[in-house]
Amino acid sequence: MFRGVLASGLLALRGLRLLRAPPLSVRQGSKRSCTVGVRSVDDGPKELSNFCLRSHTCGELRREHVGQRVMLCGWLQHRRCDRFVVLRDFHGQTQLIVPQDQLHGPGHELLHLQLESVICVCGEVRDRPPGQHNPNMPTGEVEVHISSVEVLNRSRKLPFQINEAVRVNESLRLQFRYLDLRSKQLQHALRLRSNLVMSMRTFLCSQGFVDVETPTLFKKTPGGAKEFVVPSREPGKFFSLPQSPQQFKQLLMVGGLDRYFQIARCYRDEGAKPDRQPEFTQVDIELSFTGQQAVQDLVEELLCHSWPCDLPPLAKPFCTLTYDQALNLYGTDKPDTRFGMQLVDVTGEVGNNRLTSEHASCRPRQSDCVRAICVPRGSELFCNEDFCTLKGLAKEHFNQEVIVMRLCGNDGETTSEWLSPGEQHALVEKCGAGPMDALLLAAGERSDVCLSLGKLRLECVQLLEKMGLSLRPCGLFQFLWVVDFPLFLPRKDNPTLLESAHHPFTAPHPDDAHLIYTQPQKARSQHYDLVLNGSEVGGGSVRIHNSQLQRHVLEKVLQEDTQQMSHLLEALDSGAPPHAGIALGLDRLVALLVGAHSIRDVIAFPKSFRGHDLMSNAPDWLSPEELAPYHINLCFPET
Amino acid sequence: MFRGVLASGLLALRGLRLLRAPPLSVRQGSKRSCTVGVRSVDDGPKELSNFCLRSHTCGELRREHVGQRVMLCGWLQHRRCDRFVVLRDFHGQTQLIVPQDQLHGPGHELLHLQLESVICVCGEVRDRPPGQHNPNMPTGEVEVHISSVEVLNRSRKLPFQINEAVRVNESLRLQFRYLDLRSKQLQHALRLRSNLVMSMRTFLCSQGFVDVETPTLFKKTPGGAKEFVVPSREPGKFFSLPQSPQQFKQLLMVGGLDRYFQIARCYRDEGAKPDRQPEFTQVDIELSFTGQQAVQDLVEELLCHSWPCDLPPLAKPFCTLTYDQALNLYGTDKPDTRFGMQLVDVTGEVGNNRLTSEHASCRPRQSDCVRAICVPRGSELFCNEDFCTLKGLAKEHFNQEVIVMRLCGNDGETTSEWLSPGEQHALVEKCGAGPMDALLLAAGERSDVCLSLGKLRLECVQLLEKMGLSLRPCGLFQFLWVVDFPLFLPRKDNPTLLESAHHPFTAPHPDDAHLIYTQPQKARSQHYDLVLNGSEVGGGSVRIHNSQLQRHVLEKVLQEDTQQMSHLLEALDSGAPPHAGIALGLDRLVALLVGAHSIRDVIAFPKSFRGHDLMSNAPDWLSPEELAPYHINLCFPET
């Protein structure tokens, strides 16, 4: 019986209900699922075909199914030889074959249907004939001889093909996001993300953490410049969308929810910024009666527990660097430790005043430092233009001169004319440089020198990788803790004042607690960052739980108006336990895990890098009538 | 060694780090946790003391711990006899005893510390002396003889006591929410909520559902009047905070994420409304290749799986009523089926024109109906004032007259003077009324009659319960499906036009699909509501997956501008599978589970019923400078 192809969607809808009759009904699926008990997310195969029409997914059939009658639903992926159709869902692909005697019946229409149309077929699983097995396809040993087919929905001709080989430009993919979601990459990323989050939840719940939802309609944070505002119906009064649940998680600790987590939606209005999203997600954790090391231990266990099993397992404990060490060795507070090329302190070797007059502009002052990085095979692989680019970058970003020394030959001899052979030898030896390596040197104020060389280190590795050297092996995930950050930094708009390096609730390093009252600019904090392959993927701190200290920091050090924070200060005064926490940036973490270039590739419906939803065209105009309940008017900027 | 009481929080902070040394260090906790593998949320005891100072929680110690040295952290709950202190955390309470020889040492301060201060104690677990066991306290067989104590944070005198017996007024509790969170009720509600959600996730993941986060910064929905607006930095352009991820979940289906769920934050700007929150949470589910019955099966399994184990298990399948049946039998589309008192059709018994002239105003027209409810023992228990109140309610809400018939004596004789004895007998028999019951009758247009009596039915049960009758046993949870709703309703502002009864994406009932084009007002939908104990806790539908049908509904039936929905129409045209879904109201569900009067009692930081955050005072004023980036001005209403 070949039930035939139903044309209209409405008929298809009715057909769908007809299909619910035996032999492969929804009810049957439902019955099968009665055996499902409590099971963990990673625990064996999932019940993918309960509560729906299909008997199997398109990725499921194997030789053991031969002879079974099955019902498959999916998208028309491919057609060939006027007899074969490949049906796809997001678990795989199955080859269908139209029996010879049906080729001029309703099967004809199937063979002429627009690709990406949605169909439901019944048929029998058969062995493929000898020689026609497809070893590249998990279902490649079988095919389904169809006995009935129903078109559930016809597709128009699509603006681009669902084919990972054809990656059209990103705006088009964002405009038709529902089509791009059919790509293997996005399906993989979103499913991995879901599994990762579920594993994290499982671990956190096993440790007694309570999942608490906190509000997103809150009041503005003092100094929280990047918060979206939401007008209320009360004239002149606004909510703000907070950048994190920071205050709420601390208040939960005061309220005795002593182990909190939340996969929290956060908001940040930064206008257009590449690879930032106006809304993003963090794995937010806070616990009481704890300290920095314990939070780090917790996060390490959390990540090890939830790490995708097809990746090499993580090793604990993760490495830790202090902020100072990170800056000195890698020229950044988020070092990529997958490769070497560390900064080397050569102040002793080169001397404070031995840079020649050609390099007068970078002549170090007495108190300053000289640092070098050694680029392996740099002398051989980089051309003059490459070195010019590198020097230009340091000049542009940090106004920092950089000197290049190309090592030649087998004896590692340098090309420098301004260092004595002894000094050259000491320098090369200190840097561990070999023949055909290149040294990049910078001298001056430590921070500029380090940041410049840190940037050049990353540029060099990219250049070297373009030339075929593999310095950062694919699939290597190198976590790193960076600790002992400064607690305060000079304010950018007025360097005589201080601002929090992270946020004003960060506790001082216990060894520096006294400095808060005397030299706050010298105090280190109990903040910790988690870095993965050179990207910051998390940050947290021990919080201030003492109200006098918090008040001192807000009023005296930061000169904030504590009126706005009175609820938090009162809470700290009401039996607040010591507490600490962390937030992991989920989007970034998943992007690194799947090797995506942008967090847009791990978010189902991201905004464009200009902050627009290209699919629905948001943000959009509102009429004055729609704004009236909020007592706001538009005021267009003068042009 | 009695380490002594450290006064300042800063010293306490340093003390906290000192305490990390053995024998009870954080590291030790961390090591213990290495044995934790994949485990489900309900799987045995949780590791509550890893990654923190304490060795045990305050609810954990039993006789088997006698002789062990332990470290406990918690809040000073209670003190008595100048020697005993009760320490509380949110897992229980433990009695501490200050040894006799320490009563004048630093132990003195402990005994004079403000209640609710936070302390950390070390000590030895000992059997309580004979006769001093407390059977009402899980830890009541033991006490801890303390050897050292540290004050981690002092509390001020609090505005109210953390004691479930003292429930102060709600505004004060909302203002100091972080204190109210310490109450047993809120701790229980939030922890139950977390467990419930985790069990739901575990079940959904086991069925292959993918947790996908959808944006909350979206564009306005046509007709979506209750959406908060969020100004963007582009002059005149706004995001909206959607009331549900409806469009996104459908687009995910088009995108092949064929089984989606999300615990989704939703927004609804209704101004001040009792027991509504501007942000709320729904368990959002959508799947492809499915139908109404399958979604109902799925939800039943989901709820059975995640149902708290200390409640009686749920029975499957849940009962189902059509919308018409619900209205006819219970006078509402969300019947409380825990008790009877159903509406009885007595049109035949009383006759269309037999109400006497005293009741002329409710004389039914020929085509109308007469309905009755029988209030058990109403004649005995209700006074005239009660009946006046009931009649007044029907008049006030529905302009509906209601006639009361009080049955007397043992023979069920009525007091009516306007029905013949035969008619009275037939009426009493049809209603199953007994002696001393009361009948409430209404006649007129069916909808008003039913809604009136439906409201009175609920009023009566409350009145009866106040009088000591138990009609709705505590702990009884009665789920019910209501199906076959009308697809469209007359618009309230213009009854000649139609609006969607639920939303414009709802598919018509297959038997009524043809009516969409001819008599849309008569079409039923494939919408289904889930009702628990008379409250709507969920609603969903089979969606329209055919773009022509969707366009017809939007353009022709609802007369909407489809321009705003072009992305959805295009998506339906691009290979959209048939799909259906549901959203469960998590706040309401948890409130019913824990017997809370308001959803505010199951949300960590709710807004007041006027929509304010009384703790932080949100929404709040913003300065013109803060509004400037959004190109909006305030326009205050004229007074």
TrEMBL record, chains A, B:
SUPFAM superfamilies the record matches: Class II aaRS and biotin synthetases, GAD domain-like, Nucleic acid-binding proteins
Pfam families registered for this protein in UniProt: tRNA-synt_2 (PF00152)
Domain of life: Eukaryota
Cited NCBIfam families: aspS_bact, PRK00476.1
Stretches assigned to the Aminoacyl-transfer RNA synthetases class-II family profile domain: 190-606
GO MF annotations in UniProt: aspartate-tRNA ligase activity; ATP binding
Name recorded for this polypeptide: Aspartyl-tRNA synthetase 2, mitochondrial
InterPro entries for this protein: Aa-tRNA-synt_II, aa-tRNA-synth_II, aa-tRNA-synth_II/BPL/LPL, Asp-tRNA-ligase_1, Asp-tRNA-ligase_1_N, Asp/Asn-tRNA-synth_IIb, GAD-like_sf, NA-bd_OB-fold
Keywords attached to this entry: Aminoacyl-tRNA synthetase, ATP-binding, Ligase, Nucleotide-binding, Protein biosynthesis, Signal
UniProt record similarity statement: Belongs to the class-II aminoacyl-tRNA synthetase family. Type 1 subfamily.
Leader sequence residues: 1-21
Record GO biological process: aspartyl-tRNA aminoacylation
Gene Ontology CC entries for this record: mitochondrion
